[in-house]
Structures are given as C-alpha cells and as structure tokens.
Design brief:
Elements (H helix, E strand, L loop, with lengths): L4 E3 L5 E3 L3 E3 L7 E3 L11 H7 L2 E4 L1 H10 L10 E3 L6 E3 L2 E7 L7 E6 L5 E4 L15 E4 L16 H13 L4 E5 L3 H11 L6 E3 L1 H12 L7 E3 L3 H8 L5 E5 L11 E6 L7 E5 L2 E5 L6 H11 L3 E5 L6 H11 L2 E5 L9
Helix pairs in contact: 2-5, 7-8
The structure holds zinc ion (ZN).
C-alpha cells in the first residue's frame, strides 16, 4: 500500500490524492473537522486557493463566530451533512460524526482502489462510532499512558451536584473553552437546573449557534444587559459562564468551577478558596484512543505529532495492537525534548 496519508510540517492531514484537513495545503479540497483554532490553520488561504472548503453547517457557523472577519459564506465553502458522501474525481469524501464540540467530524476518503483512509479529528470515544478504515490518522492529545481517567464516579453528576449546592450561596461562575461551556449548559439543563445562565457576548454568540443547531440551553442573558447586571451585581442564583481566559478577572469572591481535560488524578480538585477543577474532557483519554484505533481495524496508523506529542501513542499502538504506527510530522518542536 503506497503512502495514502501524511501529516505535513504545517499540520495539514493529507488523505488520498485530493484532501487536506485542518490546515492549508496545496490540494483542491480542504476539510475543517471542527471549529477549534488548532484545526483552522490557514483557513483564509484555503478559502481563497482551494476549489472547495468542506465542513458541517454547525462548524461553519461556529468558525465564523470564533474568527472575526472570516466570511464562510463564499463560493468555495461547501457545507456537508454527516454521512453524505461527496465525489471528487475518483475519490469519495464523507464526514462522520465525532463526539467533541458541536459540528465535529471524522473524515473518510475512499480512493479509486477502494482503500479507506481516515482522519479521526478530535473525539471522545464514548459518543463516537469509529470509522472503519485501512489507513488511519489519529489525534494524540492524551496519547501518553499516564493520561487515564479511571474515576469511579460519574463526573457529570458530580458537577451537577456541586453546582446545585453552590447556587444556594448565590451566583456560580463556570470557566471553560468554547463548546465545552455549552456542553456544561446542556448538562445542567438536562439535570433540571433552571436558574438563568449569564454570559459575555462571545460566549452568548456561540451559545446561540449551538441553540440554532438543536441544543436546548435557555434562558440565557448577556452579562452586559440590565438583567445580567442585576443577577451578577446582586449575587443572585444564576450560573455565569466565562471563557477560561477570564478566570483572573471575574467572580473572584464566588463559587467557581473550571472544566478541563488536563486532570487525571481526581475527578474534582480544589484549586482555590472557593474554586474547583472538574475533570471534564472533550477528548478521549489514553485508553479511549487505543480502543478507538482497535475498533477502526486500521492496518496502518499515523499519530498527529503536530497538535500534540504523538510518539508515545504510536509506540503503544504498535506494541498493544500489533499494528504499524508512526508519528508525523517528524522533527516538530513537541518531539525535541
Ligand atoms: Zn478540538
């Protein structure tokens, strides 16, 4: 089998002959697997230079909100629903659902010879149906054997319980990344937490996109509106959702929660006077990555060594699954220790 997939030194995941995912490359088709910034490299250039830039409708809407002045309603942009193949020359491209943020997908290219070549994108194995393929490029965020979350508790229920308790003392602040914050909103709503949600403009815009694509998150209000002001200034029971980068600036005297994947010791850890870190991730841990690779039944695996250190995962895949695996690209800053 000739080399059918590759990761370039710019972070583009090349599949088959025509497709480059998640960074610019001189190929006719660019795929955007989801709206996180480390998957939007060179998007402006792709929009200008590629024949087609493909993504799900939700990813288009989120990427536009998260990138000021980026117009994704141009001719080269083509939104594609999950499981609806697109023919290009001799190849067929399909986006498959990935459990990550709204709109996220795995990408499958079937070439003229029937070889199935796939890129996992970012995913959580629990809600993702692994794509059946011959050649696989897999993400490696938590690709080290030490990155395991073997908690004996339901982290989501734990977060709900803690927030409900903290609401008795007034406003609760929640810090996280775009997409993750909305997942927490949905979690609280489905647990029947009915207090208002308050948020600054950017978080509000992302939340509205999520609602337009089927998430049920209301009622929500802007922190800059009269109602939002009254709730926050009066320390009334509500949940205030802020991006992680606002942690040092708001809600310093309140109960605070940070949702993050980079926690493997405990499901919940106290990190401040009234602040807790909750181990809620939108990526698979090490065991999840190995399970995913196994279920794809890939015969050749490449680990993404651009967005994270893929070396350890490649070694473990070879060792545990007996499948040929390499990290790409070589010689990135992450690999030179
Ligand atoms: Zn991501």
């Amino acid at each position: 089998m000739a080399e059918r997939a590759h990761v370039t030194k710019n972070g583009a995941i090349l599949l088959g002959d025509n497709v480059a995912c998640d960074a610019y490359d001189k190929r006719p088709i660019r795929v955007v697997t989801h709206a996180h910034s480390d998957h939007l490299y060179g998007l402006r250039k792709s929009v200008k230079c590629c024949e087609k830039v493909i993504m799900t409708p939700a990813t288009r809407d989120l990427a536009e909100i998260l990138n000021d002045n980026l117009n994704l309603h141009q001719e080269s942009i083509q939104t594609l629903e999950y499981n609806k193949p697109l023919k290009y020359g001799d190849e067929k491209i399909t986006l498959l659902k990935a459990d990550h943020i709204l709109g996220a997908c795995q990408t499958l290219v079937e070439d003229a010879g029937g070889i199935r070549i796939a890129w996992s994108g970012d995913f959580r194995v629990e809600g993702t149906e692994p794509v059946d393929c011959d050649v696989l490029v897999v993400e490696a965020t938590y690709g080290k054997p030490s990155c395991r979350r073997n908690f004996n508790v339901d982290v989501r229920q734990l977060l709900v319980d803690m927030v409900e308790k903290s609401l008795r003392g007034g406003t609760v602040y929640m810090f996280g990344y775009h997409g993750k914050l909305q997942e927490v909103m949905q979690l609280l709503r489905s647990a029947d937490v009915q207090v208002p949600f308050v948020m600054p403009e950017r978080v509000f815009e992302v939340t509205k996109v999520c609602e337009n694509h089927g998430m049920n998150l209301g009622p929500v209000s802007l922190s800059s509106d009269k109602e939002g002001h009254e709730l926050l200034d009066g320390n009334l029971p509500c949940v205030a959702f802020y991006h992680m980068n606002q942690r040092a600036h708001v809600g310093l005297r309140n109960s605070r929660y940070c949702v993050s994947g980079w926690e493997f010791q405990k499901p919940c850890r106290q990190i401040g006077d009234r602040e807790h870190l909750i181990a809620l991730s939108d990526h698979s841990d090490f065991d999840g990555l190995i399970e995913y690779v196994k279920r794809t039944r890939a015969k050749q695996v490449i680990t993404d060594n651009f967005r994270s250190d893929g070396d350890a995962l490649a070694k473990e895949i070879s060792r545990r699954l007996g499948v040929s695996a390499v990290a790409m690209p070589r010689d990135t800053p992450q690999t030179t220790l």
